[in-house]
């Protein structure tokens, strides 16, 4: 009887010790953060939701993966909000430019409130794709210049590795003087830096480059409509697909990809500007794209 009592007590202790491991592991939760309810934002959120649900529903958190919430911040305002939190979470920024993302995360880190892990799919085109587009349009290697402000100076090493002539604009620098310094290049690669490309300066830059017979590879479809030669651009679904791929890779392996430019894109060309520059745009330019 004494032996039986000891045996039952041992079994009871074993069952109690094993009980926590028998509970089903809780999966990652995800949340899409937005700062407005515009039609475009709703379209982004609805498309993202459909892509993320299948990724997170079967997931079980491994012991090494303690983070419990995965946020997708749509736009700068949503990123600022989540970056100010002190949370054991993962954040992926979407539809925010590289320089704004870097500024927000740097400020959050300085204030001690940055997320445990973060990454981004930037809003602007990848410079490497833009340079490839310029080569396709001109049908030869081209001389490319770029003007960087303080917020885009981090791109200088990569651009110079691609043989781009880079000028950095200091405080108070005259944009016309800088444009004259790179007037001998075939193409100006425009990057979305508000210290250089503002609503007031873009028209002046486009007129100056036009006089120099330079094509401008812009950073948005609107800039091409305003007079830039061409650009690659990403649709909502292109960015969302990349966000989902990053989330899926994290769920599968626990490693978060670094911040990156859009992987998927299409091309828009200003045919009138191309004719003025004596450039014949072929089908290989119009069809230059990468789809999910």
UniProtKB/TrEMBL annotation:
Gene source species: Massilia aerilata
Keyword annotations: Signal
Protein name: ABC transporter substrate-binding protein
Signal peptide: 1-17
Keyword Signal: yes
Keyword Signal assigned: yes
């Amino acid at each position: 009887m004494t032996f039986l009592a000891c045996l039952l007590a041992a079994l009871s202790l074993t069952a109690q010790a094993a009980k926590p491991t028998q509970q089903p592991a809780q999966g990652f939760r995800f949340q899409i953060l937005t700062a407005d309810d515009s039609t475009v934002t709703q379209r982004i959120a609805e498309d993202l939701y459909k892509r993320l649900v299948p990724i997170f529903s079967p997931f079980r958190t491994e012991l090494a993966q303690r983070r419990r919430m995965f946020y997708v911040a749509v736009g700068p305002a949503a990123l600022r909000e989540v970056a100010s939190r002190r949370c054991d979470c993962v954040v992926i920024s979407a539809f925010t430019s590289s320089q704004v993302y870097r500024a927000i995360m740097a400020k959050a880190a300085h204030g001690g409130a940055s997320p445990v892990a973060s990454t981004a799919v930037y809003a602007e085109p990848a410079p490497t794709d833009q340079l490839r587009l310029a080569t396709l349009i001109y049908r030869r290697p081209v001389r490319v210049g770029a003007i960087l402000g303080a917020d885009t100076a981090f791109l200088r090493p990569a651009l110079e590795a691609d043989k781009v002539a880079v000028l950095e604009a200091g405080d108070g620098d005259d944009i016309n003087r800088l444009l004259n310094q790179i007037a001998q290049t075939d193409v100006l690669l425009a990057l979305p830096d508000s210290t250089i490309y503002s609503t007031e300066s873009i028209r002046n830059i486009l007129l100056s480059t036009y006089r120099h017979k330079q094509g401008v590879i812009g950073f948005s479809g609107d800039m091409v409509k305003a007079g830039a030669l061409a650009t690659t651009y990403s649709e909502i679904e292109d960015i969302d697909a990349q966000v989902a791929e990053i989330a899926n890779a994290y769920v599968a392996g626990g490693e978060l990809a670094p911040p990156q430019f859009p992987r998927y894109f299409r091309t828009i060309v200003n045919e009138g500007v191309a004719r003025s520059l004596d450039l014949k745009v072929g089908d290989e330019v119009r069809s230059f794209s990468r789809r999910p």
